[in-house]
Amino acid sequence: MTPEQIDTIEGVRRRLAQVRQRGCVIGFVPTMGALHAGHGALIERARRESHYVVVSIFVNPIQFDRHNDYEAYTIDLRQDLESCGALGADLVFTPTREEMYPAEPAIFVEVAGLADHLCGRFRPGHFRGVATVVAKLLHIVAPDRAYFGEKDAQQLAIIQRMVVDLNLAVEIVPVPTARESDGLALSSRNKHLSGDERQIAPILFQALLVAQKRVAAGCTAAADAKETALQLLKGHPQMRVEYLEVVDAASLAPVERIGGAVRIAAAVWVGGTRLIDNVSVPE
Ligand code: AMP
To answer: 20-26 long-range CB contacts below 8 Å, 24 or more apart?
Structure first.
């Protein structure tokens, strides 16, 4: 079924007031479009757990740290709407840039600490842009639950902290990373990989897995676990490691001695495409 498409904040609020009056539980999946099966996993989960599913499609200009990236972020709205329909979404919110930012924003949401590590070190302002737009979207949609992918583990942690600190009445639901059969995490950026680059891209996940295996086997020196992963990546000169870190699962700060739950996260460039991925190692 084709979902209803609304592009104004007022329109969404009006429709959702009616939906809420019927006693419906509302699930929400914020996206930037270019939908793939990773987004699909979030929408399907929301569909299973809610009476009414809202997907937003908005390419958020204030989270791009490089203007060219924003310009190059193309989406096919018609195709995305079809995917939303096939996955059972009820409403797709497609605001314009002017609708979301009628004036230069004066208020930003900064989640101190968590945003300083991993991708935050290399993408200044990125998480501030993400937290700000997600706060706005949560205010507009006011869902019971909102779904976020573990693929973007730092984003997920930042949103979870924002919801706690700002007392937002929403449950944040983490969804495991959807992968290709060879392990590559699904991402809208994968389409930029050339044939050769696509061949080697899954090595990122393999490298994280070897580090994960070492930690699970009892290795407590983060440097050793890192080295195992880096060795594998070093065999592929087309891959440039931006970072590969073993971090505390809660604070995302790098650890030296592994004593509790950790996440092993990396960003690598494959040619001109930046890929991120992560795995967790429970306590
Ligand atoms: P984006 O459209 O890239 O902003 O992503 C929208 C949501 O989809 C975020 O919560 C992402 O973490 C999630 N997502 C993207 N790729 C995947 C994936 N491969 N598996 C699970 N969730 C994903």
So the answer is: 22/51, 23/51, 24/50, 24/51, 24/52, 25/49, 25/50, 25/51, 25/52, 25/144, 25/145, 26/50, 26/51, 26/52, 26/53, 26/54, 26/141, 26/142, 26/143, 26/144, 26/145
Mean pLDDT over the full length of the chain: 97
Residues labelled catalytic = 39
CB atoms within 10 A of CB 233: 20
Question: Residue with structure tokens 């930037």?
Answer: 32
Is any ligand 1 atom within 6 A of the Cβ of residue 83?
no
- Separation of alpha carbons 166 and 201, rounded Å: 38
Residue 134 CB–ligand 1 contact under 6 Å = no
224 alpha carbon – ligand 1 mean position (Å): 30
How many C-alpha atoms does 92 have within 13 Å on its Cβ side? 27
Atom of ligand 1 nearest to the CA of 42: 22
* Tokens read off for 90: 């009820």
Burial 88-110 (b: 16+ CB within 10 A, else e): ebbbbbbbeeebbbeeeeeeebe
> pLDDT tens, 88-123?
999 999 999 999 999 999 999 999 999 999 999 999
